[in-house]
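Hi Y.,

Following your request, here is the sequence exactly as I used it, all 89 residues.
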Amino acid sequence: MDTIAWQRMEGALIFAGALILVVFVGGGTAWWIAVILFFAPNISFAAYAFGPRLGAVAYNSTHIYGFRAVLFALGVATDKATISVLGVL
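Below is the corresponding structure, written out as tokens. Let me know if you'd prefer a different format.
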């Protein structure tokens, strides 16, 4: 199996896990809010309006699993379902 196939499989597993967590941890989050939040990190490209360096930092920092894992952990630690859902999506 090539690298791209592995990355797609990893992405699909992360997506499936996120959906399961939203259902069980979501705290009543509406499905349409979950869809919007799923695409929210892609809005970070707007930081490129302030220059390529800031844009790259903003875009890359919101597209790593570590950023979301920290948000999820923070939500669980503070018992805030909304923050947990932000971390999952």
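The two ends are 27 Å apart (CA to CA).

Thanks again,
Q.
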